[in-house]
Design brief:
The complex is a heterotrimer of chains A (about 230), B (about 400) and C (about 210). By secondary structure, chain B is an alpha+beta fold. Helices cover about 55% and strands about 15% of the residues of chain B. In chain B, strands 1, 2, 3, 4, 5, 6, 7, 8, 9 and 10 form a ten-stranded mixed beta sheet that branches. Chain B is elongated, with a radius of gyration of 32 Å. The chains are: A alpha/beta (about 230), B alpha+beta (about 400), C alpha+beta (about 210).
C-alpha cells in the first residue's frame, strides 16, 4: 500500500482556442500524503484551478496518470464518462467553492443534508447536527442562507462537503468572498478540521496568510508547479 | 431528513409567478378536458334517461306522421293519420314484445288561447296498459283513472300549474266543450310528461269521433332481439317504426361532430399547457445550471438529476390537474347551463357526469403528457457537467 | 337522409311537447305584437323581472298577503315566482306598464293582463287565456272597458272570497252569470295584479 493518497504523474491538460494551443497544466507530477493540508498559490491564469480540477476528478487530463488511494483513475489514454467520474468523486471528495452555492430555499440543516439524498457512503451515519455543532453553526440550523452571514454560509458549505466523510476536501478559493476576519476564521477552521479529523485538504488560494495555515505550499506558474517553503 | 420531492418542490416555487402561471395553464386545460369528457358521458346518460322515461323502446305509427305532427300542431288535428287499434293485438303476439300500449294523440283548437287562438293537446292512453309502461311516474295528488271511458284526466305537473288545477277540478276540452274531471296530478319528472294531459283512451276517442289511434308504444323483453322485431314491424303496410335506440344513435351522431371538434380544441389546449410546462422547467434548469453542477459534485448521478427535474414536472402536472378536476366538479352546474344555451336539443337532467374513474383518467392523461413534455428539460439537466459550474464562475 | 329527418322530427315532437305548456308564468305570447296592440303609440318595450323574494322577502310577502286578504286559499302570491313586467316606451319616453297574472278559473287558468299608465290607472285590459263556454264574453271589449280608469284603490276593499266591495267595482257587470267562478277569478286576478304592481313599481319610488 502506497503512503500517498494522491499520486499524479506527468499530468497535462491542453485546450485549443481556435488555432491557439494552451497548456493549462503542463507535465505536473506530485504526491500528497493522507492527512496533508496542501495549498496551491499562484497568479490568475496560472492553471491552479485546472490542476485541482484534474486532481479532484472534475475533468479528464489530456495525458498523464492519477491514482487515488492506490487506485488508478486516469491513465492509458482512456476518457472517463461523467457518470463514472461522479461515482469516483462521491466516494472520495468533498468540495467547497468561493461562491458557497447553497440552495436558497432550503434551511441550513437541509442544505447540509442534500448530499445524503443522492448518495450515502457505506458506514456513514446521518450526523448532520453533530457536524453543525463542530462547525459552530448549530444555532442557525433552521435559518435560510439569506438570513446568515458570508462566513456562516461557508461553514454550511464545509459541513455539506464533509457530510459523506470524504477522504479529501477540495477547496477552491474558499475565502475569496469573505472579509479579512471571516477569511481568517474559515482558514483556521479548515486547519482545525485537518488536525482533528485527519481529512486531507487541497486548497487553492490567493491569500498568503491562509496558504500558510496549511503545512505545504505549492506554487503554480504557467501550468507548472514548484514547492515553496514560504510565501 | 429532506427528500427529493422536497427539493423539487422548493425548486419549483423559487419563481412563484412563473410557476403559478404555468399551473394556471394546466388547471384550465385539465378543467376543460374533464368537463368535456364528463359532458360526453353525461349527455349520453341523460339521453338514455329521457328515453327510458318514455317507458317503451319502440313506437309504431302511420307513415307520414312526423310531417302531420307539424300540421296537427298548427291546425288542431286535421289531416292526422291514424292506425287501426287492431294492430295492437297483432303486434302483441310477437315473441319479443313484453308489453304494448295504444296511444291517441289529439289536439283541439282553443280560440281563447292568445290573441289568435292556440292548440290544446291531449294524450289518450289505456288505463290498464299505459301506467304499467311507466311505473316510475309518481303522483303529487290523486292517481290514475281506472276505466278507459271515464270522463277524467291526469295532468302533468306543469300542465296543472298552468291551468291552476287541483284534484277534483274540472277542465273543458275546447272545440268539443266536454267536461273532464282531474283525478290525478303527477309529480315533476323533468320530461315531456310534465306538460301532458292524459285522458282515458276511449274517452278521447269518443270526443275526437274516432275509434282509431295514432301510436303504439312497445316494450321489448329483456334480451330479446330488437332488430328482429323491427324487421317484422317494417313489413307492416303504411306503418313506420321508430326505435329509441335509433333516435339516440341519430342524436349522438348529430352532436358527435361538435364533440370531436371541441375535444380537439381541448387537446390543443393541453399541448399548449405542456409546452408551457417544458418551457418553465427548461428555464429553471438553465437558471440553476451551477447549482445542478454542485449537486453532481455532491454525488448526484445524471439519473438523479433527471429524476429530480422530472419530479418538478410531476408536481406541476399532478397539482394542476387535481385542481382543474376539482374546479370542474364545483362548476359542473355552470358548464351544464352553458351547454344548454348552445345546443339546440339537450336531454333533461344533469349533462355533465364526472365520476372517480373519469377524474382519474383525466388526471392520468394530463400527468402522462406532462411527463413527456418534461423529458427534454430533465435530460438536459442530467447532462450538465460540474466543470461548467466552476468555469462559469 | 329522409329517414334521419323523420326520426328527429318524431323525437322532437315527443320531447318538444312540453314547450306547449312550458310557460307557467304569465308572459305575453307575442310581446312585439301584443305590446303594440295593447299600447297604441308605443314604439317598444323592456322586460323586467320581479319577485317577492328579491324585492323584500318575507316582510314584503306578509304585506302583500294582508293586502290580498289574509291567508286566502283563493287569492295568494307565491314568494319565488318571477313576474314579468313590460315597461312600454315611445322612443326613450316611458309610457306605462303591462303585467299579467294567472288566476284559477272554472275550467283552467285565466291569464289576466292589465295595461297601466304611469300613475297606475288601468288604460287597457286583456285576457290572454281563459277556458270555458263563456270565454268569449269575458274577452269581449264590452267587459274589459268597465275597468278602464280603475286603480288599486278601487280593488283594495274587495273581499277575496266573495269579490264584493265598495265603490266602482260594485258597478262591474258579469256578462256571464252562468260562469260566476270565472268572473270571480277575473276579479281576483285584477286585485292581485294591481296590488303586485303597486308593490313592485308604484310604491318603489326611484326604482320605477
Amino acid at each position: 500500500m502506497s503512503k500517498y493518497l494522491i499520486e499524479a504523474k506527468n499530468l497535462t491538460r491542453i485546450y485549443h482556442r481556435g488555432s491557439e494551443v494552451i497548456h493549462a497544466v503542463d507535465n505536473v507530477s506530485l504526491n500528497v500524503q493522507r492527512g496533508e493540508f496542501v495549498s496551491f498559490v499562484g497568479p490568475s491564469g496560472s492553471g491552479k484551478t485546472t490542476l485541482i480540477n484534474l486532481l479532484g476528478c472534475l475533468d479528464n487530463p489530456t495525458s498523464g496518470t492519477l491514482s487515488l488511494a492506490d487506485k488508478e483513475i486516469f491513465g492509458g489514454g482512456i476518457t472517463l464518462s461523467e457518470r463514472l467520474l461522479t461515482r469516483i468523486r462521491r466516494n472520495i471528495f468533498g468540495y467547497i467553492f468561493q461562491n458557497f452555492y447553497l440552495i436558497p430555499t432550503l434551511t441550513v440543516r437541509e442544505n447540509v443534508s442534500v448530499p445524503l439524498v443522492f448518495y450515502k457512503k457505506k458506514g456513514v451515519v446521518d450526523e448532520v447536527d453533530k457536524l453543525l455543532e463542530l462547525l459552530g453553526i448549530a444555532n442557525r440550523a433552521d435559518h435560510l442562507p439569506v438570513e446568515i452571514s458570508g462566513g456562516e454560509m461557508q461553514r454550511v458549505a464545509i459541513a455539506r462537503a464533509l457530510v459523506n466523510r470524504p477522504e479529501i476536501l477540495l477547496a477552491d478559493e474558499p475565502t475569496g468572498n469573505l472579509d479579512t476576519v471571516r477569511s481568517d476564521e474559515v482558514g483556521h477552521l479548515l486547519s482545525d478540521l485537518n488536525k482533528k479529523t485527519g481529512v486531507t485538504i487541497i486548497m487553492v488560494t490567493h491569500n498568503p496568510a491562509i496558504a500558510r495555515l496549511g503545512g505545504r505550499i505549492i506554487n503554480v506558474t504557467d501550468g507548472r508547479i514548484s514547492e515553496k517553503t514560504s510565501v | 431528513m429532506i427528500s427529493r420531492l422536497h427539493i423539487a418542490y422548493e425548486d419549483l416555487f423559487r419563481k412563484k409567478t412563473r410557476t403559478v402561471l404555468t399551473l394556471i395553464g394546466i388547471i384550465l386545460s385539465s378543467w376543460v378536458l374533464v368537463s368535456l369528457l364528463g359532458f360526453n358521458k353525461g349527455f349520453e346518460l341523460a339521453l338514455n334517461r329521457d328515453i327510458d322515461n318514455m317507458g317503451y323502446q319502440v313506437m309504431v305509427m302511420a307513415k307520414g306522421c312526423p310531417y302531420e305532427a307539424a300540421t296537427m300542431m298548427l291546425q288542431g288535428g286535421r289531416g292526422l293519420r291514424y292506425i287501426e287499434q287492431s294492430m295492437v293485438e297483432n303486434i302483441s303476439k310477437e315473441p319479443e314484445v313484453e308489453a304494448i300500449t295504444p296511444i291517441l294523440m289529439q289536439a283541439f283548437f282553443d280560440p281563447n288561447k292568445g290573441e289568435s287562438g292556440g292548440i290544446a293537446g291531449y294524450y289518450g292512453v289505456q288505463a290498464k296498459s299505459y301506467p304499467g309502461m311507466k311505473p316510475f311516474l309518481k303522483f303529487k295528488s290523486g292517481g290514475w283513472f281506472h276505466e278507459d271511458d271515464a270522463p277524467q284526466v291526469v295532468m302533468g305537473f306543469e300542465a296543472a300549474e298552468l291551468e291552476q288545477r287541483e284534484v277534483g277540478d274540472m277542465i273543458l276540452v275546447p272545440e268539443k266543450n266536454v267536461e273532464l274531471k282531474v283525478v290525478g296530478i303527477l309529480e315533476r319528472t323533468g320530461s315531456q310528461d310534465d306538460g301532458t294531459i292524459f285522458v282515458p283512451l276511449k274517452t278521447l276517442q269518443k270526443i275526437a269521433g274516432t275509434d282509431k289511434i295514432t301510436t303504439i308504444g312497445i316494450k321489448i323483453k329483456k334480451g330479446a332481439d330488437m332488430a328482429a322485431l323491427e324487421e317484422k314491424l317494417y313489413k307492416l303496410p303504411n306503418m313506420q317504426v321508430v326505435s329509441f335506440t335509433q333516435v339516440k344513435q341519430t342524436i349522438m351522431k348529430l352532436i358527435s361532430t361538435a364533440r370531436v371538434m371541441v375535444l380537439s380544441i381541448a387537446f390543443i389546449a393541453i399541448i399548449i399547457a405542456m409546452v408551457g410546462v417544458a418551457n418553465t422547467i427548461l428555464m429553471s434548469v438553465i437558471e440553476r445550471k451551477q447549482e445542478i453542477g454542485i449537486l453532481k459534485m455532491m454525488g448526484a448521478l445524471p439519473g438523479d438529476i433527471f429524476r429530480l427535474v422530472w419530479t418538478e414536472t410531476l408536481i406541476l402536472c399532478a397539482g394542476g390537474s387535481a385542481i382543474g378536476i376539482v374546479l370542474a366538479l364545483l362548476f359542473a352546474r355552470v358548464t351544464d347551463l352553458v351547454v344548454r344555451q348552445i345546443l339546440p336539443y339537450v336531454p333533461n337532467g344533469g349533462l355533465v357526469s364526472i365520476d372517480v374513474v373519469l377524474a382519474l383518467e383525466t388526471f392520468g392523461v394530463i400527468v402522462a403528457v406532462g411527463l413527456l413534455s418534461g423529458l427534454f428539460p430533465a435530460w438536459k439537466a442530467g447532462r450538465v457537467r460540474p466543470l461548467q459550474t466552476v468555469k462559469s464562475e | 337522409m329522409k329517414k334521419y329527418f323523420k326520426v328527429i322530427t318524431i323525437f322532437l315532437f315527443f320531447f318538444g311537447l312540453p314547450e306547449a305548456f312550458a310557460a307557467i308564468g304569465c308572459d305575453l305570447n307575442d310581446p312585439v305584437r301584443d305590446v303594440a296592440r295593447l299600447f297604441p303609440g308605443s314604439s317598444g318595450y323592456k322586460m323586467r323581472y320581479a319577485s317577492i323574494t328579491e324585492l323584500g322577502g318575507e316582510p314584503l310577502l306578509k304585506k302583500i298577503k294582508e293586502r290580498l286578504g289574509g291567508n286566502s286559499k283563493v287569492l295568494f302570491a307565491p314568494i319565488d315566482v318571477p313576474y314579468t313586467i313590460y315597461e312600454v316606451y315611445n322612443g326613450s319616453t316611458k309610457l306605462g306598464y303591462i303585467h299579467g297574472v294567472n288566476q284559477k278559473g272554472q275550467y283552467g287558468g285565466t291569464q289576466v293582463f292589465i295595461i297601466q299608465n304611469l300613475n297606475g290607472t288601468i288604460r287597457n285590459f286583456y285576457i290572454q287565456k281563459i277556458s270555458g263556454p263563456a270565454a268569449a264574453k269575458f274577452r269581449s271589449p264590452a267587459f274589459g272597458i268597465q275597468f278602464i280608469g280603475m286603480s288599486v284603490k278601487d280593488f283594495g276593499g274587495m273581499d277575496a272570497s266573495t269579490c264584493k266591495g265598495k265603490g266602482r267595482i260594485t258597478k262591474v257587470v258579469n256578462p256571464a252569470p252562468e260562469a260566476e267562478a270565472d268572473f270571480m277569478g277575473i276579479m281576483r286576478g285584477l286585485k292581485k295584479n294591481l296590488i303586485l304592481m303597486d308593490e313592485f313599481v308604484f310604491s318603489a319610488g326611484a326604482k320605477k
